[in-house]
Amino acid sequence: MLNAIELRGLKKRLGNFVLGPIDLTVPRGCIVGYIGENGAGKSTTIKLLLHLMFPDEGEIRLLGKDVQEFTPQMKKDIAYVFDDLYLPEDMTLKNVHNFHQKLYGQAWQDKTFSDLVARFNLPDSKSIKHFSRGMKMQLGLALALSHGARLLLLDEATSGLDPVIRDDVLDILLDYIQNENHTVFVSSHILSDLEKVADYIAFIHKGQLLFMETKDDLMNQYGIASLSEKQLEELDDKAIVGKRPHKFGVEVMLKRELVPSDFELEKVSIEEIMVYMIKGKRK
Amino acid sequence: MIALMYKDLVALKKALFLLVIILFLVGFYTMQQGKVMALPLMFMLVPLILIGMLWGSDTKSNVDQYIIPGPIKRRTIVLSRYAFVWIVAVIGAVFAVLLKLFAKDSVLSEIPWYLIAVALLFLTTVVSVIQLPLMYKFGAEKARLIFVALYFIVFAFFSYVGGNKDLIIKLFDRLILFDLRIIGLAILGVTFLLNAVSFTLSAAIYAKKEF
């Protein structure tokens, strides 16, 4: 099966920060949530995917092709939305439309764009400097989805948006993924959103990919329990992923397979997995 | 590239409109003062101003980050910048030749049309072709300092030409001893060479640039 993204030994040094080496395979037809702290390397990874940065080592393949060999025609298969709409702010919606029509040529889908603009109710004559952040992101998404791309990359595109607009964006991502040839790779801080839509979660910490697993496996793999210090001491150290002390004892995130089966564990969220893994490691 | 030029024109439409009005006013004033020769030389400033404005607009909107992953080569993005300079240069050259044909200026009337044309192509592109690789290499902040220095050079040139019209005529009298067609070809060759080297340098710098 053709993979949407393949990273092999990807490494990038930026001052003191080193991303990788990262090995990652994203199968076609899924939504991958790429999570991690600020400065973990999420945006750097996406910039490397988009050839805005060049790797020091390793290989990047998108839709089966090495990104270094991408022709303008192949690039039409990749869509992207950043945390802001990087277009001249004096442009109106009509100008933006004309620009993309000329840029993407025959791949441009007028009807898709018009439908999305109508769905988002974006103003036709206002220049984009008067657009709210939400409107800019909606326009960015409409542009990204209007040239028949098979891979959609989003870098913190939903941060700072209100819950209603975020929900709209998630609906659109779910619509997009209905086509089995489509893949979404989304970096986000808003983990509750990823919990709703992602099939896989990839977790990057200090430039290292800690895991990429299906969301369901991940959530079944861990659990949370509130224990006394004595109960904690009785547990296998390897079972403890992270812990947070409180007044009555300690709250711990545990690996389910390493604790006794009669042990009662609460369901864990992606946010808790991320927080416990980072904070737990610090402690 | 048409898409990029469209984007640039839209981004600068207000500034371009203002620039055209200013050029008309300055042109009208120089005509009234009987300094017709200064008119085509104004085209030297236009690419400088245009590139400055485009660079500012692109830096502000961070548009490179948006267009590089798009269906376009980095080389074409650089080419679209140079295309503006070349379009202005051709308009300047045509304008100067028309001025020679229709306006009665003693200096212009003595120079063959093809020499005026190639001189304008050279003069309107020379500063920009030095400026552009520096801008791609050092970025917007340092480029502003380079801008200031280049403006001084251009203004110094204008002042020199304005105050030494006789010197220009003398120089022309000496040059007239040579075959002017060969001189014209030499200027054209140097202009092409400078532009080609500058574009190659800019494209090479931009190809390695990270965003």
Topology:
The complex is a heterodimer of chains A (283) and B (211).
Chain A: E1 3-14, E2 17-27, E3 31-35, H1 42-49, E4 57-62, E5 65-66, H2 72-75, E6 78-81, H3 93-104, H4 110-120, H5 133-144, E7 151-155, H6 163-176, E8 183-187, H7 191-197, E9 200-205, E10 208-214, H8 215-221, E11 222-227, H9 229-234, E12 240-246, E13 249-255, H10 270-282
Parallel strand pairs in A: 3-8, 3-9, 6-7, 7-8
Antiparallel strand pairs in A: 1-2, 1-4, 4-5, 9-10, 11-13, 12-13
Chain B: H1 2-11, H2 13-32, H3 38-41, H4 45-61, H5 63-67, H6 74-102, H7 106-110, H8 113-163, H9 165-175, H10 180-208
Helix pairs in contact in B: 4-6, 4-8, 6-8, 6-10, 8-9, 8-10
Notes on the structure:
The complex is a heterodimer of chains A (283) and B (211). Chain A has 283 residues and is α/β, with parallel strands linked by helices. Chain A has 2 domains: 3-206, 3-Layer(aba) Sandwich (Rossmann fold), CATH 3.40.50.300; 218-282, no CATH class. Chain A has helices at residues 42-49, 72-75, 93-104, 110-120, 133-144, 163-176, 191-197, 215-221, 229-234, 270-282; strands spanning 3-14, 17-27, 31-35, 57-62, 65-66, 78-81, 151-155, 183-187, 200-205, 208-214, 222-227, 240-246, 249-255. In chain A, α4 (110-120) runs antiparallel to α5 (133-144). The radius of gyration of chain A is 21 Å and the shape is globular. Chain A starts with a strand and ends with a helix. The mean pLDDT of chain A is 92. Chain B is mainly α and 211 residues long. Chain B has one domain (2-208). Helix content of chain B is 86%, strand content 0%. Chain B contains 10 helices and no strands. Chain B starts with a helix and ends with a helix. The model of chain B has no long low-confidence stretch (mean pLDDT 87). Classes of the chains: A alpha/beta (283), B mainly alpha (211). Chain A binds chain B through residues 47, 50-54, 72-73, 75-76, 78, 80, 82, 84-91, 95, 98-100, 102-105, 107, and chain B through 2-3, 6-7, 10-11, 13-14, 57-58, 60-63, 65-73, 208, 210-211.
